[in-house]
Structure formats: C-alpha cells, structure tokens
Design a protein that fits this description.
This protein is mostly helical. Helix 2 runs antiparallel to helix 3 and helix 5 packs antiparallel against helix 7.
C-alpha cells in the first residue's frame, strides 16, 4: 500500500510502533475511500447535469471545484488527526542530545534540532548520516523531519 496521507520518510515509517502503523494504515484507507467517493460523486454529478441539459464547461468546472474542495477538506481532517495522534504518542527517548519540548510549534522544534546538528557536526555529510539515525528527531519533527533531511542532503551535495 502506498502511504501518501502523510509526508513521512521510509525511516520515519520504520520507526513507528505497531499501533502507530495501524493508525497510518487506517488513515490511508480512509483517504483512499474518500478519493473513490469523490470520483463517484463527480461521475454522478456529471450524469445529473447531462440528463438535465445543464452540462456546460462553466457549471461542470464549478461543480468539480466545489466537490473536490469538500472532499479535500475531509481528507485534511483525516491527515491532521493522524499527525496529531503520531505527534503526541508518548515514546521514551533517552539520551537525546537536545531538549524535546512538545509544546513548541513544529517550526520551533525544527530550529532546535537543526541548531543542534549545525553545532555538533562540522559537515553536512555528517549531519545527514547522523540525522538518518536519529529516531527521536524523526518522531519529534513529524513531517518537518523530511524537509530538514532534504535540506541537509542538498547542502551535502553542494559541499562535495
């Protein structure tokens, strides 16, 4: 099953507990179901417009935009609920070299982790290697982990 309900790396997914993976799977199934329902709803609306002699590009475009927005909002709720669940599931991290403060925003958390790696390691290659091993950062940063890792990878390429 392709996981695209959240933007987690393979590393982050591998570090989730069995219960967390079940939550991810459940959310992905909900998202897939909603996308199927959207396709069915759009097909139904198209048939209705054609049968009523009201099918025009303007009305059809408005109808598609409206129903897509409705379903995207519901998918957003599923995603946000999953991220909340994953973010606040207690995990015991010992020996973490930076402070884990879950009351901080995700942007502030990323800044804490990035600052630690910038001070602790002298090259971006080292930072990439160490960040990939950091299970605490993967959990603590949620989707911000991927963007930080991508940033370090890009900077490592420029460094080489």
């Amino acid at each position: 099953m392709k996981i695209d309900v959240i933007n987690y790396t393979e590393i982050q997914l591998a570090q989730l507990t069995e219960a967390q993976l079940l939550e991810v799977k459940s959310a992905q199934i909900k998202k897939n179901r909603l996308l199927r329902e959207l396709a069915e709803k759009l097909q139904q609306e198209k048939r209705r417009l054609i049968n009523n002699g009201m099918f025009s590009s303007y009305i059809w475009d408005w109808t598609k935009t409206y129903w897509t927005g409705v379903f995207e909002e519901e998918i957003g709720w599923v995603r946000d609920g999953l991220l909340f669940q994953l973010q606040y599931t207690p995990i015991d991290f010992t020996d973490v070299p930076y402070e884990l403060d879950f009351s901080l925003s995700l942007a502030d958390r990323r800044e804490v982790v990035e600052r630690y790696y910038m001070n602790a390691y002298s090259t971006y290659t080292e930072r990439v290697y160490e960040l990939r091993k950091d299970g605490a950062a993967a959990h603590y940063l949620c989707e911000g982990y991927k963007s930080l890792l991508d940033y370090f990878v890009e900077m490592a390429k420029k460094e080489a």
